[in-house]
Each structure stands twice: as C-alpha cells, then as structure tokens.
Specification:
Elements (H helix, E strand, L loop, with lengths): L6 H14 L7 E7 L2 E6 H4 L2 E3 L3 E2 L8 E7 L2 E7 H4 L12 E4 L8 E5 L1 E7 L4 E3 L12 E3 L5 E4 L2 H6 L1 H4 L4
Parallel strand pairs: 2-12, 6-8
Antiparallel strand pairs: 1-2, 1-9, 3-7, 4-5, 5-6, 7-8, 10-11, 11-12
Length: 169
C-alpha cells in the first residue's frame, strides 16, 4: 500500500521537483490574477494554494481585510489582494483561491486572489523598468509573450509593509 502523505507535503515535493527540473538560473514563479492584474511570486514564497473556504468577518477592519480562515485547524488572516491595491473586491466564487504566503516567515497570512494562472519562468518574461510609484514589494515588473503585464510580489517585503499589516480602521 502506498504511503499516505499530506497535501502540504505533496505540494512541497512538487514545488521542489519543478524548481529542480530547470536550470539553476531558471527560477519558477507562480502566476495569480487579482482583479484584472497579474502577479508573480517565487515558488519558494508562494506557499500552499487552497480553495476558498468560509471566512469569518472581523469587525472594525479595513474593507480589504476579507476575514479569518480556518485551514486544517490553523487560523489565517485573509487579505483581498485586489481590494488592498485599491481595486474592486475579489468575487468569492469557484475560481477564487487562497494563497497561504506567510507560513515560511512565521505569519499565518493568506491572499485572496481571483484565480491561479499557473507556473511562469523568468526566461520567458521580458523585464520592464521599475515603477517608483508603487511599494517596494511590487516594483519588479515583466511582460510575457502574450503582452500581459506582470508584477512580482516580494513576499517578505509585503509582510513587513506597515500598510499591509495595519488592518484596523
């Protein structure tokens, strides 16, 4: 009988395999969509992807704070990435996902995103000039061969951004 493993262990194994299957210079990135914007995260920082679970509302928080999610017995603060960026709130439907981003850094944080786009590789993207008007965690930008504009989230910097951590009204 095959050894049973948890979903988290399987995703970690798969991420390691995908990262190891390309040249060392080739960094695997996870692509997500938040509203109409496309975002990239390093696979090592992206964490686990889970279907949208029921969220518990938290009073006296900013509108982009979607609530608290119970993921296998652990509580995660859920931030609607699109709303946090000043755009429309993410619709809560079958394609919406929670991307657990903070576990690696000791924070139970999750981003509510419109949908998962899939894996992307830096070699297939064209770097763009950094935009000094956006926060430091989102300055790295790319364009793909289909003309889509991507911004890369630096998770460690996002988690230490005061605006991201200040959820109270």
């Amino acid at each position: 009988m095959a050894k049973k493993i948890s979903l988290h262990e399987f995703q970690s194994y798969l991420a390691a395999r995908l990262a190891g299957s390309t040249a060392e210079k080739s960094a695997g990135l996870l692509g997500v969509q938040a509203g109409s914007d496309y975002w990239l995260l390093d696979l090592a920082d992206s964490g686990e992807i889970v279907p949208l679970t029921p969220l518990t509302a938290v009073p006296l928080t900013k509108p982009w704070f979607a609530g608290i999610a119970n993921i296998r017995g652990s509580l995660y603060s859920v931030i609607d990435l699109s709303a946090f960026l000043g755009n429309e709130a993410t619709p809560k439907n079958a394609t919406s996902r929670l991307l657990l981003i903070g576990t690696r850094y000791g924070t139970n944080a999750a981003l509510l995103v419109t949908r998962m786009v899939g894996l992307r590789y830096v070699e297939a993207l064209t770097p763009q000039a950094p935009d000094g008007r956006v926060p430091a965690w989102a300055r790295e930008a790319y364009t793909d061969n289909e003309g889509r504009h991507w911004k890369k989230i630096k998770v460690r910097e996002l988690l230490s951004d005061g605006a991201f951590m200040d959820i109270g009204v």
